[in-house]
């Protein structure tokens, strides 16, 4: 392979791989030294604040940390806005030497850019921008480390251009390719960690789909193996991994602080030590001209553990591409924290978000809302407001998974849209099922009162003792509990923007509970020795109410299954509606029977009034339940029509 490189590039280029390695190492050192200059300015201006700690970055770049710490710690303001610091002149000279090393590597590649770089450096030297001195103007440091938006040259801009040129050279003159990584100057022991990194990268690389990025280079420099990946197309978004024996140092830069935190969180199962997110200024990068740098150190106990970590780093990189774009999209449908957690879930489950974005993302969800729930989810309304937080997150997980599966299998976008719309419908149906379950709880409480009342009347009819006060007190407690459930149901109906008929059903059952509580109260006031024939008629009337409430529970259970398309469930639910109407008719007849017996029996006033009021309260209960039945029928028919 070396012979081929010499033939292609010329005999004088035999040293190109090592020069490129030196140039890339010089690039790493310059970044640390420019960060040190910025930190020195900050410390000189605000000596009382915590001093920036660049030890991890220094070690990763092969620079003695003590010298940099001394420079930053000793920085102070001098006359006329100048910054003085120990070893400042040496630092400036080292920067010039590093730039020279980068240019030398580019020139070795016979690049047409070499003369331009020489000219740019010469212009800076002639202008005194890179002069070595014991003190320097703070403004000059800003010009050195920033990139002016008007296109004017700067040290930072030139270093970035040199770095890009070196990356192109490194890819073009690689001595070998290991599992897709362009490598040169490696030793036999370097192959295993490179292969481990590429194995992880290969496990998830397909999830970027057509997006560019994830090109990898590796070289040996300063006794360490260096693995570099460009991730995507964003400037200042890069990862450099240094491997020495079983120690791994990961240096990661990003323009988005949140994405940098996300990256670190992906390795929570590894006992790595991560630095804080240091903020660096660079005009033209990101929204506010800053980027963030984080360094992680992992000391493995064995080569296998080291390689497992390297594979994890490789596998994680694809989930950084377009991460912020996906987060912004998801934040329009769920809360900010849930959007980030969704992306974390997608990464950990090897689903990712790129397919979701490529297939339309926001438009996929918007179309599902317009087609499947135009009246349930308003324009601009978040999904978690319409479905509830858990359901909204679960729906978006499905949308991301379906998108990845479809794009990976080459299925049509139309099919993906249909699947997502169907999933949204299912979640909306689950919302209704949740609300129907609340109404079922109400009906259960009504049944408790009716059953207690029937038991009380049966005891009186049999001549047994019955505690009317206990009956009324228990019915009152149950009614209060039912009121709280009704309030909860109305809140959920409003929050989830559910169909109005559900709230109307809630109201009907609540009214039935109120009538039963009133009936229990009247029963507690019945005089002693009520005629057994009257008690028998009242017991039969109460049994009709119990039967009606059983039909309510059965109808609700069947209605909850109707959206799944089960014909038998719709028939069962409609049959319960018929039972409710029949129960209401039966209660009318029984109430009239009680009324007839009272008027024909010559009973005292207290007996007559209490029996008549009790019968009417129970009969009104069945009226309310019959009204519920009509509402339940409307609910079922609307589902069948849909």
Task: Please provide a written account of the structure.
With 642 residues, the protein is of the alpha+beta class. It has four domains: 2-170, no CATH class; 174-321, no CATH class; 325-411, no CATH class; 426-641, Methane Monooxygenase Hydroxylase, Chain G, domain 1 (Up-down Bundle). The protein contains 23 helices and twelve strands. The strands form two sheets. Strands 4, 5, 6, 7, 8, 9, 10, 11 and 12 form a nine-stranded mixed sheet that branches. The chain has a three-stranded antiparallel sheet with strand order 1-2-3. Strand 6 (216-221) and strand 7 (224-229) form a beta hairpin. Helix 18 (413-461) packs parallel to helix 20. Residues 1-14 have low confidence and may be disordered.
> Which blocks of ≥5 consecutive residues have pLDDT under 50?
1-14
Sheet of most strands? 9 strands, mixed
**Structural class computed from helices and strand pairing:** alpha+beta
The CATH architecture assignment of the largest domain turns out to be Up-down Bundle
Radius of gyration: 39 Å
Q: Which CATH class of the largest domain is shown?
A: Mainly Alpha
Shape: elongated
**Average pLDDT value?**
84
Tell me the helix content: 55-70%
How many domains make up the coordinates?
4
Q: What's the tally of helices?
A: 23
At CATH level 3, the topology of the largest domain is: Methane Monooxygenase Hydroxylase, Chain G, domain 1
CATH superfamily of the largest domain: Phosphate transport system protein phou homolog 2, domain 2
Based on DSSP secondary structure assignment, what is the total number of beta strands? Answer: 12
Strand content: 5-15%
Q: Give the CA-CA distance, first to last residue.
A: 68 Å
């Amino acid at each position: 392979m070396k012979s081929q490189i010499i033939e292609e590039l010329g005999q004088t280029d035999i040293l190109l791989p090592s020069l490129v390695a030196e140039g890339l190492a010089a690039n790493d050192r310059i970044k640390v030294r420019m960060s040190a200059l910025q930190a020195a300015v900050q410390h000189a201006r605000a000596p009382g604040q915590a001093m920036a700690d660049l030890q991890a970055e220094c070690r990763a770049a092969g620079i003695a940390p003590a010298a940099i710490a001394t420079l930053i710690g000793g920085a102070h303001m001098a006359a006329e806005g100048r910054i003085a610091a120990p070893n400042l002149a040496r630092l400036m000279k080292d920067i010039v030497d590093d730039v020279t090393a980068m240019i030398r590597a580019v020139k070795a590649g016979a690049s047409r850019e070499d003369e331009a770089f020489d000219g740019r450096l010469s212009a800076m030297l002639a202008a005194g921008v890179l002069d070595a001195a014991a003190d320097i103007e703070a403004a000059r440091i800003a010009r050195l480390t920033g990139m002016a938006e008007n296109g004017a040259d700067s040290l930072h801009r030139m270093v970035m251009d040199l770095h890009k040129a070196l990356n192109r050279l490194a890819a073009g003159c690689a001595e070998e390719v290991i599992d897709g990584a362009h490598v040169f100057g490696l030793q036999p022991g370097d192959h295993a960690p490179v292969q481990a990194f590429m194995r992880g990268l290969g496990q998830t690389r397909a999830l970027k789909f057509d997006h560019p990025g994830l090109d990898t280079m590796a070289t040996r420099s300063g006794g360490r193996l260096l693995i570099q990946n460009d991730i995507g197309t964003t400037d200042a978004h890069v990862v450099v991994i240094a491997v020495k024996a079983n120690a791994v140092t990961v240096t990661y830069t990003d323009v988005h602080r949140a994405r940098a935190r996300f990256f670190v969180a992906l390795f929570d199962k590894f006992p790595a030590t991560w630095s804080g997110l240091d903020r660096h200024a660079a005009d033209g990068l990101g929204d506010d001209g800053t980027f963030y740098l984080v360094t992680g150190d992992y000391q493995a106990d064995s080569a296998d553990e080291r390689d497992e970590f390297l594979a994890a780093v490789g596998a994680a990189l694809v989930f950084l591409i377009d991460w912020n774009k996906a987060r912004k999209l998801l934040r329009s449908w769920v809360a900010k924290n849930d959007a980030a957690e969704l992306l974390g879930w997608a990464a950990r489950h090897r689903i990712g978000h790129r397919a979701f974005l490529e297939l339309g993302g926001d438009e996929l969800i918007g179309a599902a809302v317009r087609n499947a729930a135009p009246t349930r989810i308003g324009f601009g309304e978040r999904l978690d407001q319409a479905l509830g937080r858990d359901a909204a997150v679960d729906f978006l997980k499905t949308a991301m998974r379906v998108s990845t599966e479809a794009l990976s299998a080459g299925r049509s976008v139309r099919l993906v849209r249909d699947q997502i719309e169907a999933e949204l419908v299912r979640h909306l149906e689950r919302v209704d099922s949740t609300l129907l379950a609340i109404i079922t709880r109400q009906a259960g409480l009504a049944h408790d009162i009716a059953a207690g009342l029937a038991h009380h009347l049966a005891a009186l009819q049999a001549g047994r003792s019955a505690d009317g006060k206990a009956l009324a007190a228990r019915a009152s407690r149950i009614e209060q509990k039912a009121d709280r459930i009704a309030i909860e149901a109305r809140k959920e109906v409003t929050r989830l923007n559910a169909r109005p008929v559900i709230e109307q059903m809630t109201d009907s059952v609540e009214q039935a509970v109120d009538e039963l509580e009133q009936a229990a109260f009247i029963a507690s006031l019945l005089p002693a020795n009520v005629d057994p024939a009257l008690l028998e008629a009242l017991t039969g009337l109460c049994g009709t109410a119990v039967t009606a409430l059983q039909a309510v529970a059965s109808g609700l259970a069947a209605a909850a299954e109707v959206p799944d398309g089960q014909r038998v469930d719709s028939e069962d639910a409609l049959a319960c509606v018929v039972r409710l109407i029949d129960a209401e008719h039966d209660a009318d007849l029984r109430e009239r029977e009680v009324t007839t017996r009272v008027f024909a029996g010559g009973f005292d006033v207290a007996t007559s009034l209490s029996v008549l009021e009790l019968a009417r309260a129970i009969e009104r209960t069945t009226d309310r339940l019959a009204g519920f039945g009509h509402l339940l029928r409307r609910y079922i028919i609307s589902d069948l029509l849909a």
